[in-house]
Amino acid sequence: MKRFFFLLLLLTMARSVPAMVVESGTSVVIDQPVYEDVYLAGGTITIDAPIHGDLVVAGGNVYINDSVTRDILVVGGTVTIKGYVGGRIRSIGGTIRITGNVQNDLVIAAGNIFLEKGSTVFGSLLATGGDLTLNGDIKGDIKVAVGSFKLYGTAGRNLDCRAGKIEIDGTIAGSSILAASDNLMISNNAAFKGEVRYWTSDKNVNFGKSLEKGNAVSDESLAIKTRSWYFLGATTLAGILLYLGMGLVSIIMLQYLFASIFKKAGDTVYLSTLKSLGSGFLFLAGMPVLIFLVFITLVGAPLGLILLFGYITVILLCSSIVSMTGANWLNNRSGNNPGSWSLIWKAFGIFILLRLILFTPFLGWFLYLLLSCIACGAILLNIKWKRLQKV
Fold first, then answer.
1. Is 134 helix (H, G, I), strand (E, B) or coil?
2. Residue 366: which pLDDT band, with cuts at 50, 70 and 90?
3. How many Å apart are CA 33 and CA 99, to the nearest integer?
4. 163 & 42 share domain
5. Residues 202, 316 within the same domain
6. Domain end: 230, 257, 276, which one?
7. In this structure, are 165 and 305 located in the same domain?
8. N or C: which end of the chain has fewer CB within 10 A?
9. Is 236 among the domain residues?
10. What pLDDT is recorded for position 1?
């Protein structure tokens, strides 16, 4: 089971795309340069060599001591980034400490960020939930809605901050919007080079000599109506867990109802990949046309409703369908015959991977659609249509 939830990509990509590095386990060490995308999961992960591709990391303690040429995607865990990052960093949950330079944007959901002094993000910062401490520099815009926000470095452009507690001890080159439900602190070292609009429940706010060019105007339209709103980090994380829980439930349902079909579909994917791809494409692309044609006939309206309901159900369960097909493909290739729950957990791991794939612009959606076509086509090829017609 060591690499099960990464191997689904190999269903269609083995013959047509460059290789990728896939590792998981209690301890993973990358000590040689890698020229492909890297997918890592597990306990302690240490990267001591450059990665000339994307890096996807899930869970554990991660130490990135060398450069990553392209994007980094982090899900959970504690990550320390010391090397140069050529793309953007995206994080869901967890804690990230950055001591190197980031060439592109920093996007955070329900996580904590520590940007150390001397480090620079050349793009923008977008964050929701968690706590942010910025000792380094952000060259682009900063737009955050977090629990606490501390700026000791510089914001190269505009700042839009909504938080429970805000502390400004650095420089903002553009305009500023500050809304603090608890406390807004402006230190003697703060410098605002543009206009400032602010609101805080604490009326004892003193901007002192920090306003270099503009004015600070109190704006009641920025008022935060509820004091608990900024616990968005917990809410966001709860939403992610709820989504994953629904995915697990749908996988269990599919295994209970259609175990034999998915087992056959796993073999069909391996033996007839292109045929599965074509059948799935015809289904996903052609079914809407068929439904439309059925609807325009009065006699076919009830049938059209049935087809539409079924098609929408397949679309909503598509990630789970792909996951179940991939898990059965893995089992069939290994020759093992594990229990239902082992298969379910493999499928759930693939389900999580699919969510990570979708974070990759353009290529992520392309891979997802490709895998969806293959999985749906493999299932269609294993339905006994003649038997259904007799019934």
1. strand
2. confident
3. 21
4. no
5. no
6. 230
7. no
8. C
9. no
10. 37
> pLDDT digit string (tens) for 245-276?
788 888 888 888 888 888 888 888 878 888 88
Mean pLDDT across the chain? 81
Q: What is the mean pLDDT of residues 88-101?
A: 87
The neighbouring-strand residues paired with 75 are 58, 92
Residue-number span of the structural domain to which 50 is assigned = 1-129
The model's confidence at residue 136, banded by pLDDT at 50, 70 and 90, is: very high
- For residue 345, the number of C-alpha atoms closer than 13 Å in the C-beta half-sphere is 7
Same domain, 263 and 382: yes
DSSP 62: E
Residue 235 within a domain: no
The verdict on 199 and 117 lying in the same domain is no
Q: Which of 376, 380, 269 is nearest to 315 (CA)?
A: 376
Mean pLDDT, residues 303-311: 76
What are the C-alpha distances in Å from 357 to residues 43, 271, 274, 350, 391? 21, 25, 22, 10, 41
On whether both 250 and 226 belong to a single domain, the answer is no
Q: Choose one of 230, 264, 295: the last residue of a domain.
A: 230
pTM score over 0.85:
no
Q: What is the mean pLDDT of residues 280-303?
A: 74
pLDDT band at 115 (very low <50, low <70, confident <90, very high): very high
Structure tokens at 253: 């349902």
For residue 319, how many other CB atoms are within 10 A of its CB?
A: 22
The C-alpha atoms of residue 374 and residue 377 are separated, in whole angstroms, by 5
Residue 122 tokens read as 């050349």
> What is the Cβ-side half-sphere exposure of residue 364, based on CA atoms within 13 angstroms?
13
Confirm whether 237 is domain-assigned: no
Kindly tell me the number of DSSP H helices and DSSP E strands found in the chain.
8, 22
CA distance from start to end of the chain: 41
Q: Which residues are registered as beta bridge partners of 112? A: 95
What CA–CA distance (Å, rounded) separates 368 from 382?
22
Residues 189-228 as b/e (b if ≥16 CB within 10 A, e otherwise) read: ebbbbbbbbbbbeeeebeeeebbeeeebeeeeeeebeeee
DSSP state of 113: E
Q: How confident is the model at residue 15 (pLDDT cuts 50, 70, 90)?
A: very low
Same domain, 102 and 125: yes
